[in-house]
Amino acid sequence: MTSAPPCPTFRDPSGSLRLEGDLAIREIHTSAREEVLEFVNSRFCQRLQKRGDLVAATIDDAPDGLRLLHPRVPVPTYPWEWTPSMWLAAAELTLNLCEEALSEGWILKDATPLNVLFIGPRPVLVDFLSFERYKPGSSIWLAYGQYVRTFELPLLMNRLLHWPLALSFFKRDGYEPSDLYQAIGRTQRFSPAAFWPITLPALLEKRNGAAASTAQPAKAKDPGLALHVLKRMLASLRKRTRRALPKDAGSEWADYTGTLTHYTPEQSAQKLEWMQQVLNELHPERVLDIGANTGEFSSLAAGMGAQVVALERDAATAERLFCMSRAKNLSIQTVHADAARPTAAAGWDNNETSALLPRLEGRFDLVLMLAVIHHLLLLEQIPLGPIMELCHRITRRYLVIEWVPATDPMYQSLMRGRDTLYGSITEADLLAACVGRFQLLRQLTLSNGRVLFLFERA
Predict the structure, then answer these.
(1) pLDDT tens digits, residue range 133-158?
(2) Are 183 and 291 in the same domain?
(3) Which of the listed residues 42, 71, 100 is the one where a domain comes to its end?
(4) Residue 6 placed within a domain
């Protein structure tokens, strides 16, 4: 069972977007037709598509109107499911494309993370209608305020006050500097990081009123000078955004593989060998790794040719996973989310952005749940039946589960004295929950008592 697809977009006066099958169809309004055609047919646009910085598009110039047909991104994610370095990657893509566009006679009129999706570890701009012709002599970037509110300030508040980036779920148009000015301390207000994007705009607004902070059209200047001013401003924004990136913080799970006490080197090697055999035999094209931790098995699958989505609830661990996959150019798309508390649908009529689970269901040949189920059982108190039902909806064919027995030290530490409720649960209960949903293909019991299961969808 899946939810309805998101409703067509309606906020852009130049067009709207709807999802249909494997396509994202962009309807172009008559008023924007000529400029859109000029951009799509330009060598600049074609260069961006070939490079992979801009989503591909096919022109459908039908009698009833102009459309752009885009291949649908398999698993779209939203900014509230990104790590800090993903925000930075999306921000730098936006600034780089705007700077490159200026040299080609274009400019970005929008600058929001909602215009960017990730394919593997790579950000891709997906909004063609963000480009418009640049007016020579203008030194104003009308999207400056939107960029600061939606890109720079969420990162900065994550660094200064540890506000989760997931709060962007409630802030479609970002943070207002005047609100943040009240939230930060005096020392922070006059720090180099906060003064320009928060303190100065807040003080000017307080002195002159809200209208004073609204960008006004610039008078025509020498075209070369105006272009120079714009590019210097973009370079300054790039530096400020990089400085806003939070310092890497440790977490409970970020050093998971380096602090294992329940696996000997021999047991780890045995588990790795078993997973290699499974991947070699199944040759999955798309893999979902739920609870990916540091990404050891996501990397294994990606290295064997699979496109991987790695779901990780811990912020610091997800951050390291993304940085690793980007540095190694592995086809791993990081999603910072919790399978037990998945992202909800949002927006107008609760239908502008879709919930996480419908974006995952039925899209993967293989789902990995390695040492995850005991967390769902003990910390979230989710029964085995619903867990296996969710797995059945998500995978198209195969499922790998690592079962952690009640005697395991990790299981014991999470049970917290609730032995009567959970102390007698065994792998037999797992197999019972699989009846009618999965059939067992093989299993391997490690010397530490953990069991690896390979199931096929019934």
Answers:
(1) 999 999 999 999 999 999 999 999 99
(2) no
(3) 71
(4) no
CA–CA distance, 423 with 398 (Å, rounded to integer): 28
**The total number of structural domains that make up the chain:** 3
Indicate if 290 and 360 belong to the same structural domain.
yes
Find out whether 332 and 302 touch, Cβ atoms under 8 Å.
yes
In eight-state DSSP terms, residue 407 is T
Q: Do the domain assignments include residue 4? A: no
Q: What is the CATH number of the domain that holds 368?
A: 3.40.50.150
Q: What count of Cα atoms within 13 Å lies in the side-chain half-sphere of residue 402?
A: 24
Q: Which domain holds residue 336?
A: 256-457
- How many angstroms separate the CA atoms of 273 and 291, rounded? 20
Condensed to tens digits (0 to 9), the pLDDT of residues 17-53 reads 999 999 999 999 999 999 999 999 999 999 999 999 9
Residues 35 and 170 in one domain: no
**Cα angle, residue 388 at apex, residues 385 and 392 outer, rounded to 5°:** 135
- Residue 413 CA to residue 54 CA, distance in Å, equals 48
Judged by phi (left if over 0) then psi (alpha if -120 to 50, else beta), residue 174 lies in left
DSSP state of 261: S
Cβ atoms of 81 and 118 closer than 8 Å: no
436: left (phi over 0), alpha (psi -120 to 50) or beta: left
